[in-house]
């Protein structure tokens, strides 16, 4: 009797709906099929209790909802107060329903408070905004929203840093909108606004879908292992040089990297590098991504450290647009084959079958 038959019989006998999400199912090359593919491979909790992390299944069994409204009509007026109400060692999903408006707060979710969801109205998205800078707090702690806890999710939320645009002269002008350092985090239809260092994709397994991220220098940086699907990366004009990513993988044995699949790079002027070797083993791949002419023909930067050309992993696969021409790329660009691209084109890249759920529905 094969293993598959045993699983089916076990499920029938015990009346447990069991769906084994296929982490290896490749993202379709046709973008119009992406949402259907996602629904097939990231099914709701009820279908997957036998495959998800046990702590996640327990947490989702009895979710709690907290309403936050700037006008005082909710349980709290500020997100900070809502977070304070969650006990340390929290074991249940807490959905924080954010009413429309600006939440001018510097928010931190400590590691002791996992299973938090921020949810906003897609037609009137709430805005989390603060103006902290590296000079005030240090770069990574300048973020308007800092998430250190595991199993965080945000749906239909705008996160911004309102600090002035760095002019290249004033020290410490970097200003992060979001730092995500918890493991197993997801972002659906979220928008991130900033200039230099907009998103600190710090560490852990992360998933971004249908998002928008804009910036100038290193506006996606960190040492997480993250999959970005159908996300727009917008290069703000006005600088002579722009850098989309600064991935911080420090050794060949480190299992981190950024994979951008069916994304869109917007802007103009041929000023943007797809990434730089901030750390010696940086790993970034773009696949099925549309690149406007904002992308510099060379594509990638060795960060004035030519020795990193032998250690970085900067790959491209089946991309399109004026900025995707490979003939002008630096010689350390990896022009991926079907086999070479395969590990970056599935949910297995972030072990999603064990933790990733569809966006919260209210």
From TrEMBL:
Lipoprotein listed as a keyword: no
Coiled coil regions in record: none
One GO biological process term: cell wall modification
Active-site annotation: 218
Cleaved signal peptide residues: 1-21
Keywords: Aspartyl esterase, Cell wall, Hydrolase, Secreted, Signal
EC number of the protein: 3.1.1.11
Pathway terms, separated by semicolons: Glycan metabolism; pectin degradation; 2-dehydro-3-deoxy-D-gluconate from pectin: step 1/5
Compartment(s): Secreted, Cell wall
Catalyses which reaction(s): [(1->4)-alpha-D-galacturonosyl methyl ester](n) + n H2O = [(1->4)-alpha-D-galacturonosyl](n) + n methanol + n H(+)
Residue ranges occupied by any Pectinesterase catalytic domain in the UniProt entry: 66-351
Family note: Belongs to the pectinesterase family.
Protein name: Pectinesterase
Organism this protein belongs to: Cinchona calisaya
